Amino acid sequence: MTVDAPARRAISELSADELGAWLAERGEPAYRARQLRRWLSSGVSFSEMHDLPAGLRADLEAGFRANSLEEVRRTEADRGLTTKLLYRLDGGYTVEAVIMRYARRSTLCISSQVGCPVGCPFCATGQGPFGRNLKAHEIVDQAVDAQRRLLTEGRALSHVVFMGMGEPLANYDAVVESVRRIADPAGLGISPRRVTISTAGLVPRIGRLAAEGLPLTLAISLHAARDELRDVLVPINRNFPLSDLIASADAFGQRTGRRVSYEWVLLAGVNDTERDARELGSLLRGRLAHVNLIPFNPVQEAPYAEPDAYSVRRFARQLRGEGLNVTVRDTRGREGDAACGQLRARALAEDAGAGGEKSRGNRGLVSGASASTL
Ligand code: SAH
Ligand code: SF4
After folding, report:
1. pLDDT tens digit string along 3-52?
2. Is 96 a catalytic residue?
């Protein structure tokens, strides 16, 4: 792994105040900051910021990189509607982001950590080693880069989902700061209402998030409605059992007025049985909730299988019979390496032995470490 610091800072590392001070030092008028920040949120290079004076553009070029991320791999799927990107961060680690284009929205699936300390056994990210937390600007830069691509297609980024690599609430401060920056009307201007944070269930952090005053959507990765099974599928359940998790989600819903989503990765024969439907029914019935079924996307070496289409429909029907609101997630990007962490997992496998990115193993964190490490 390369550890050399890059020569120039990424401009996204500067706060609005720092940017203003940098401009003021150059004797620029106050309105320049607004102008520059608008350009920066569109992801264009400094040389393309045509209404800035040439001297300022040259100073920007000499002083900063326009984005902290370096694209190292890109794959297109769904006839160009899905773009999967692998970025290299400062220090050498890589993370992925996925752009999904729909008729009336363009959604970015964003990463918040290199790897994930939770270690769910069905997840490519959880199987791999944990690297580090992303900084707020590295999270924002994924959105800025997606915006740059989408603008050239006559589209604009409209939604952001924290469903890429990592457990967003385990990198709490950077994630919340990135949401505020992404929402800033002087920048990307994407309302928190169009942002979803997906969590494996860090209960104390759900409480903190509810108090932030951000009307975002909370998605809870449930996957099991009995502790005994969830302890295996989502290991932090041993620290934060279902009763506490549901109570914190209810409190989030009450505090923010937002309907909570529950995600359920369907693993054939493991959590798609009638018993599971009944248990989920009694857990969520009567709540302001929505269940999102995600057919398992096979991950190398994970001991699980994807249910067939009939079983998916049957499980959805059973849940509706239990009185729940249910949708089945469309399986975008299946042609390539769709599930979180798969693009990176493949790139790492290819790099192995060739001096590629190295990191330490992280499995079993929950049994070994206290919940506070998360
Ligand atoms: N760590 C967070 C957010 C990232 S994962 C969380 O777990 O919620 C986003 C979603 O993708 C989660 O619901 C996760 O369970 C699901 N997921 C992970 N691996 C998957 C796979 N192989 N197939 C289908 N969904 C998967
Ligand atoms: Fe982490 Fe989410 Fe993957 Fe679990 S499913 S290992 S919490 S990224």
Report:
1. 555 569 999 999 999 999 999 999 999 899 999 999 999 999 999 999 99
2. yes
Choose among 290, 271, 287: nearest CA to 279.
Answer: 271
Q: Distance, CA 165 to ligand 1 centroid (Å)?
A: 9
Q: Residue 294: which of 222, 201, 370 has the closest Cα?
A: 222
User: Tell me: the pLDDT tens digits for 228-273?
Assistant: 999 999 999 999 999 999 999 999 999 999 999 999 999 999 999 9
Ligand nearest to the CA of 263: 1
Question: Which of the ligands is closest to the CA of residue 221?
Answer: 1
State how far the Cα of 236 lies from the Cα of 234, in Å rounded to an integer. 6
Q: What predicted TM-score, i.e. pTM, was given to this entire model?
A: 0.91
Closest residue by Cα to residue 59 from 84, 80, 93, 32: 32
And the tokens for 330? 């469309």
Cα separation, 265 vs 251, in Å, equals 24
* Buried residues in 350-374 as b, exposed as e (16+ CB within 10 A): eeeeeeebebeebbebbeeeeeeeb
Distance 177 CA to ligand 1 centre (A): 22
The pair of three-digit structure tokens given for residue 321, joined into one six-digit string: 């019979």
How far, in Å, is the centroid of ligand 1 from the Cα of 293?
11
Straight-line distance from the first to the last Cα atom of the chain, in angstroms, rounded to the nearest whole number: 24
Residue 345's nearest CA partner among 114, 102, 54, 46 is: 114
Q: Classify residue 341 by its DSSP letter.
A: T
